[in-house]
Design a protein that fits this description.
The structure holds 2 protein chains of 2 kinds.
Chain A (H helix, E strand, L loop, with lengths): L4 H34 L14 H9 L1 H33 L2 H14 L5 H12 L4 H8 L19 H23 L4 H9 L4 H12 L1 H17 L2 H6 L7 H9 L6 H37 L1
Helix pairs in contact in A: 1-13, 2-13, 3-7, 3-10, 3-12, 5-7, 7-10, 8-9, 9-13, 10-13, 12-13
Chain B lengths: L1 H24 L1 E2 L10 E2 L2 H8 L1 H34 L3 H9 L2 H4 L2 H14 L6 H26 L2 H9 L4 H29 L3 H7 L6 H10 L3 H32 L5
Antiparallel strand pairs in B: 1-2
Classes of the chains: A mainly alpha, B mainly alpha.
């Protein structure tokens, strides 16, 4: 299928141009606008001096930095738990055979994947909050005598509620992608490792996980970035006393005070840089961890 | 036996929350120590169906999500076609950066996009929202499309061309039928992503685009859980219908066995 070269080039440009334009204009352009505004240059508001004041004041106030540390903590813990849970569910699904496997996969993918975030938030509130279902159950069983005796799992300082929502949404995502890769790994690998003396657990660890490692790494990077920047979850199930970086950023962004706008933009840039650094770090760490076993042998 | 028990346990864990949500939406007066609500009533549902804000928001969500899914599928498939057929340096670079929107924290992404959309004056209308929603689903669409394009062997295209297919016939008789499941999957996933997006809609849509997640958000934050459950069931129902349709089409295609090698 030889085509003239110029025609081919035009076709390639035509195919890729829309997405490239969309990305450059909206994402790159947006980031450039934000970074200019973070330096304090907003002509429409009569702010025309370039300076790093907004960055310095954000760092000095430390509230945002605390939020950032808290966000990173929440995101990494929930990514970790989601990956572990997703992997173990995928491992369990792989042991099933024939119709049961199909059925389990069908129910799983039908129910968990389509749940929207707001639904999961509602579910966590209804089940785990102090007046939630679990607390009522314990009260009726006579284990607690008042709703205050129930540990506060939602709206708490440590973000347990947030982690629960993230994990409930995150682990099906991980399973979906990992199981899709793992079920296509030929069974011969399993037989070979079995004949070499590996049980199922070892085979999973040393054959399946390294072979699916790119997907695992991709999943964890995407989940981490999403959890770091998610807004509605920390606002709806988080506590007011320990805001995450994104809720802090949002309140500054919507603030009517003009001085807050460069600050919000500075926070935005800082969150962006931290997010990218963390994602790259996770990428390297997981590559080391997952492929170490593979390289040793 | 043990496996079966575990299987049943997992299914129960999935189903109980749904039952709980449904019961909450059709009862009222859910006071603290009661395990289940006492008074049976359809008030929540009546309120929701009578209130135009909710019905309008459902329609608007569906329109937005459809627009976003069509846009992202189209663009994603175009990009994937380019990435799988070209081996130039440029395509390698694009292959590494097309999923970039997923690696940026969404808050950062949407504030940047919001600034830009004000600048381009596409903020506060439904087209801007559709464009921004498709921005997040393009990586997924492209991923799906790449997987399917790579599954179609080059020889198939070569055979079709030697047998006298021009480009239009190649697409309509060979490629599109083969890609149908991918297209349906991509449409469904982009629909779901756009349907449950809150932040992008709130920022870019302003007061003009009120989707279902935007009317649900204040209900949850005000603690109006019963109306919230009813709305979230509608939410779920729409998602379920979309997924069932997608599944049905994919299955039907597979059963025909048309061109599957």
């Amino acid at each position: 299928m030889e085509k003239p070269k110029i025609k081919l080039i035009i076709r390639n440009i035509g195919l890729s141009l829309p997405v490239i334009v969309l990305y450059t204009v909206l994402i790159l352009g947006g980031m450039i606008l934000v970074s200019i505004q973070s330096l304090g240059y907003i002509p429409t508001l009569n702010l025309k001096e370039l300076s790093f004041d907004s960055y310095i004041s954000v760092i000095k106030e430390t509230r945002f930095l605390k939020g950032l540390v808290f966000s990173i903590f929440l995101a990494s813990v929930s990514t970790f738990i989601s990956i572990i849970m997703g992997l173990s569910l995928a491992r369990y699904l792989l042991t099933l055979k024939g119709k049961i496997r199909k059925g389990a996969w069908l129910i799983f993918s039908k129910t968990m994947i389509i749940l929207p975030y707001l639904y999961v938030i509602l579910l966590v509130i209804i089940t785990f909050s102090r007046s939630g279902y679990l607390s009522r159950l314990l009260y009726n069983l006579g284990i607690i005598s008042n709703s205050i005796d129930f540990p506060s799992l939602v709206y708490d300082k440590f973000g347990i509620g947030i982690i629960m929502v993230y994990v409930l949404k995150g682990f099906p995502f991980v399973t979906l992608f990992i199981f899709n890769v793992m079920k296509n790994i030929p069974l011969e690998y399993l037989y070979i490792s079995a004949s070499l003396g590996a049980n199922y657990k070892q085979a999973f660890k040393k054959v399946y996980v390294p072979l699916a490692s790119t997907t695992i790494i991709w999943c964890s990077c995407v989940l981490f970035a999403y959890f770091l920047g998610s807004l509605e979850v920390p606002i709806l199930v988080g506590s007011l006393s320990s805001p995450t970086s994104s809720s802090e950023l949002y309140s500054f962004y919507l603030s009517p005070q003009i001085n807050d706008i460069p600050k919000a933009m500075a926070m935005n840039i800082m969150l962006f840089i931290v997010g990218i650094i963390c994602t790259i770090f996770i990428n390297f760490l997981l590559k080391k961890l997952l492929l170490r076993r593979y390289n040793e042998k | 036996m043990k496996n079966k028990l575990r299987f049943i346990f997992i299914i129960i864990c999935f189903i109980i929350p749904f039952i709980l949500m449904t019961t909450l939406s059709i009862f009222k007066q859910y006071r603290y120590p009661d395990l289940l609500p006492k008074v049976f009533s359809f008030d929540n549902w009546k309120d929701i169906l009578a209130d135009q804000t909710y019905t309008n928001s459902i329609i608007q969500s569906i329109i937005t999500a459809m627009g976003a899914s069509i846009t992202s599928t189209l663009l994603g498939f175009m990009l994937a076609r380019f990435l799988t057929t070209s081996k130039s340096m440029f395509s390698k670079i694009i292959r590494n950066i097309y999923s970039f929107p997923l690696y940026i924290p969404s808050m950062v992404l949407f504030i940047g996009v919001h600034q830009m959309s004000i600048y381009l004056s596409i903020a506060n209308n439904i087209y801007g929202v559709i464009l921004v929603h498709s921005l997040i689903s393009i990586p997924y669409s492209t991923n799906i499309a790449i997987a399917y394009f790579e599954g179609i062997s080059n020889q198939l295209e070569a055979i079709a061309t030697t047998l006298g297919c021009n480009t239009r016939k190649l697409w309509s008789f060979v490629l599109l039928p083969l890609l149908k499941p991918a297209i349906v999957l991509s449409l469904a996933i982009s629909f779901l992503l756009s349907f449950s997006e809150y932040l992008a809609t709130a920022l870019i849509g302003g007061s003009n685009v009120i989707t279902l997640s935007r009317v649900m958000y204040p209900l949850i934050s005000n603690g109006n859980l019963q109306k919230g459950t009813a709305l979230s069931l509608i939410f779920l129902l729409v998602n379920l219908i979309i997924f069932c349709i997608a599944d049905f089409i994919v299955k039907k295609n597979k059963a025909k066995g048309y061109l599957y090698i």
